[in-house]
Fold:
Amino acid sequence: MKRIAGIFLVGLGLAGILVAQGVLSLTGAGATFPFPMYSKWFDEYHKKNPNVQINYQSIGSGGGIRQVTEGTVDFGATDGPMNDEQLKAFQEKHACAVLHFPTVLGAVVPTYNIPGVAASLNFTPEALAGIYLGKVTKWNDPLIADLNKGVKLPADDIVVVHRAESSGTTYVWTDFLSKVSEEWKNQVGRATAVKWPVGLGGQGNEGVTGTVKNIPDSIGYVELIYAESNKIPYGNVRNAAGVFVKASLAGVTAAAAGAAKSMPDDFRVSITNAPGKEAYPISSFTWLLIPSKISDAAKRDAIKGFLSWMLSDGQNYAEALSYARLPKEVVAKEKKALSNIQ
Amino acid sequence: MATTTTIVPSGGPVAGSRSFLSRLRDGDEIARLITFLFAASVVLITALLVYELWQGSALPRHRFGLNFFRTSVWDPVFDQFGALPFIYGTLVTSAVALLIAVPLGIGAAIFLAELAPLRLSDTLEFFIDLLAAVPSVIYGLLGIFIVVPLMRNGIQPQLKQYLGFLPLFKGPAYGLGFLTAGVVLAIMIIPYIISVSREILLSVPRDQREAALALGSTRWESTWKIVVPFARTGIIGSVFLALARALGETMAVTMVIGNTPVISPSLLSPGDSIASVIASQFKEATGELYTQSLIELGLVLFLLTFILNGLARLMIVITSQRGSGTGLA
Structure:
């Protein structure tokens, strides 16, 4: 018994020495949507820089904002930018700002299940807003049918499906609907969770997909990555230039490029309904949240080191995992912004 | 904990005749102290839980007051939070679950304890314990893939056709909703009811049965009129244990209830429950009022469980006063 305890103690001591020897450990928490991308990046970065180890908990965007504000993590991550109120709360607590760094982009697509319809349907923003407001209730409503001549749409009731839990995907979806519909903006608004006028809630992307698959005549929304990897049919959406675009990585990057020209200095920008013929209108950045003042110099260097790697080599990993890479203009602007971390 | 109960009484009577030091040396006092601390931790944890829930929900308590229980709008964008649809959903799904599970569970327990051959009974008990240990997310998947399609295509259209005149079965049959959540909950809690009730029925003294049989009653009469009433208190206990699980069930419910905070008399309607909304929204909730409202929902669930447990105690006291076996369970 004593011997075992002895061995255990020696082991513990050795582990302690190893830790002290200088593997710098950073912790982050937040959005679930970019989690596969982030875990790939943190893993690759650790291989290249064995002295930096980054741990990431995908607890959701809201959790990321909460934890970075409370100072329990070194950085946060979110799918929807922090609002002014949240920025102020951070400022008051830490006497420094929190910076947004876009990392990759994603898109949200409308998916549906109409018996006998295999075609890729066209949706106008008005049709989507009408459906989710509960005003367009039948599939053969002129608002949908007129855009899809040649597709035989049934006269059945539309079953609306949305996310049950709060989610960055919902933020992007409601942000888009708020931009294209005044009524949506006033009645429902944009947030990670809203008071849905109609519909059923599904848990997670898989819950929404499952519900849409199970219930005939239903419509839902999921992340593009999810729709692609699961081979789910999804519709085209009309963008601000009046073109019906099927979501793709290129379309998402185009939306970001369209918005890049007017990119504000704090990177808190919504790129839904972005200008540009190729732009897919329901696209969004996802952000890392970094405090502008990091007192621990080693940590500061490690974070800056990771960010600049992520902006250059790191971007090459994006497409393999079905994330859209950042446009060049945004990368250049972010590299400049790195000096704001002090 | 079995050992603790044997140590304490055995130390008890002798304790007074020896000095504290000698008792300490023997280990009796140490054992008493340690086990006391363990027991006290139960109270401590409960108190801490209530304190945390109370503290954590200060904002909505001041903002909404009792309106939190009276309003049914849940709108994170405009900061309006009312708990009523969730309380309603929790109670309705649990009631449906009990309605299905209690007769089935007790019936099965009677068969296993009284009528089945012992070997069969033991084998089945093994499976029942296995079922009781299955994680709830598995039941949720079972719900999504089997119960929901069955409900939508088979049971709900039938209910609408034959019982559609009742407000209970109106509206479109999505397959998701109160009824489905109740059925999945029933499947989850039946093993608890069977397992506990069977143990209690088995612990009814043999002479009770023998006396009944000697008076010329049939096997069934002795079971139904003597053994079951004798074990009544314990059986009610098992039902409330099951109810506690149904009230607090999170994952399985959120996967099949439809997650829409509405109050509808129809069991076919989608709804939401307290545990389910906390599980699904807390993770990404932003804003103090929103997160604190979710915490207050936790407090509401705690209160609800507390009240129902109190009722259970009351019921047990009443039934045992009416003259049945005491000291059971």
About this structure: Chain B has a mean pLDDT of 86. The beta strands of chain B are 74-75, 80-81. Chain B has 15 helices and two strands. The radius of gyration of chain B is 24 Å.
